[in-house]
Every structure is written in C-alpha cells, then in structure tokens.
Input
Amino acid sequence: MKGKQSITVFVSFCFFLSLMALTLIPVTASASSGKPIVLKFAHQNPPKGRTTVKVIDAFIKKVEEVTKGKVKIVVYPAQSLIKAKEMVTGIETGIADMAWTPLGYFTGRFPLTTVTELPFMSLRSAANNGAVLQELYETLPEVQKEYRSMKMLFLHSSDGYHIATSKKTVRNLNDIKGLKLRIMGAYPINASKRLGLSPLFMPMPAVYEAAEKGVLDGAALPWAAVATFNLQEVFPYWTDVDLWSAQFMVFMNRDKWNSLPQDVQKAITSISGMNAAKWGSNAGWGPGVQDEVIAKVKKAGRKLEKISLDPGELEKWKKIAGEPVWDEWVKEMNKKGLPGQKVLDATQRLMKKYE
Output
C-alpha cells in the first residue's frame, strides 16, 4: 500500500513539474526571441519643435543606441497620449512608460524642487542651472522623496526667462502693470503679482492661439519655447531680463523600470543623471537658441525688437519680487514640515559652485 502511495506521489510530482515547464516555456521563448522591449514615450511638444528634436528625440536615440536594439521607443508627441497637466499621473498609472515634462505644471506636487524656480535665482547658463537642479536631487534625500513614485532618469533646466510681448514694450514697472502674461509656476506667479502683472497660467501649446486672440499680452519665456512654438510670430518685442528658469524631467513608470533586464537598466543609467542634466539643459536652452530665432525672424521678414530695462530698474524688481518671495517660500516649506532653509542654503551654495 505504501509503495502504491509513493508511486502516486511521484507521478503527481512529475505532473506538477511538467505543468511548470509548460508555463515557463513561453516566457523563456519570449526573452530569447530577440524582439525589442517596446516603451511608450509621451510629451507635450510638437513633433518638429526645437526641444523635441534637440532633447527628447536625441535622448530617445541615445537609449536605443546604448541598449543595442534591445529597446524600441514609440513616441507620442503633442499631448496625443497624455495631456500636459496629466503627464505625471499618466506615467504613474502606466498610460505611457516614459515622459518628458515641465515641472511647473504640477503646483504643490514637488514643493522642495520649486526652490529652483524662485524669482531672480537662476544662473545665465542653462547647463549650470541643470547641474544645480540635478545635484540637489542627488544629494538631498528630502528632494529625492518627492519623486519616490517614479523612476527619475534626469532633471534639467532652461536658461533665464525674458518677457515677450505682442504690442506694449516693457522697460519699467509702470509698463508692466496690468499686463496679462502667461506665467508658469507658483512662485513666478507670486512674483508677477508683486510686480503688478496679471499672470495667466496655461500650457505652452495654448500660448500661440491665446496671443493671437488677444487673451494674452505676452509671456515670460525661455528662447527655446519661442523657437519650439514659433512664438516670435505673435510676440515681436522682448525685454532683456532674466526673471527665473524652468525645470524639466525625463522619467519612467517605476514598475516598468523594475521589469527591465539589468543590462538594459545599466545602459540607460549610463546616459542619465548629471551628464544628461548638463547635456539636456545645454542642448535645449543653451547658447545659440536666440540666434536661431533671430535668423528665422529675418528670413520671414518679421520684426523682433530687443527692449532693455531702464537703469536701476532690475534692482527695484529684485527688492519687490525677489528676496521677499524667497522668505515666503522658506516659511511655507516650514509649515509643511519640510526643511526649506536647508534646501535654500544648499541651492545657493550650488549656484556659487556652478556660477
């Protein structure tokens, strides 16, 4: 009797092993089939826009190259898969696997990171701004915690924002009062109100039409945004002042990242981080963008007039809308139980480091 039971147990065990083998065969075959891993990449920019070509498409090409064909990225530009203001939740929920997005659309979501968008607290060089932002992320656990729901590949930054206007030129505080300008980010909006502006928040793809219809008098812009969305066609005047900078990120769905083979993860990591932060900032918002826009304007026979602030005007603006906003930011972070002063001090040290 015991012998028969032993035979039955042995046969059952063999049957179980056979089922397990059958279950694993498709997985093994799929892994060794040579087919690339397909990742969906979403962003807001037009397919041929400058930032698209210089940063997003260029990084995608890098990923495909370093993974040696193991990864194929399908791109969904111009909000075709995820709306601009839903990009973070779209990646978190797996609508797409990867994305590029400005951080300024997500007020309150990344509070400590907003230190880098404070008024009059950015460097002239986009690459240096990007290095400050990336190093804040890499060295401060409190900042890293803001991105724990995703896989961060790299952060990067723009150069300084100038004022672009459709009809009225801006040389002083009197000129700026009451103007309806597109402003992105909670603290730039705060600073704008202090200067007497009427800030309007809207995604960059909506700015051109809003300016055409007279909904906007102008916008605070980096040159790359002008180039990407052809905003020189609706804003023929620009005031040469560095107000603040914008921040961006390239990131992934965390579960999708964790599902990638280790060699693929290692390859993507090799082109991410600090080197990517400097590269992406410089490629998208570095020297030469302004020259490209001016050349395009001349070729089209249009006007693009540079306006300078009146002497002593910038100092007035900083006293009204610079340091007071920094102090408010620290107090607001403290109320949230976040180390505002620590992060502000670290940012200022990094600005001196990369200046």
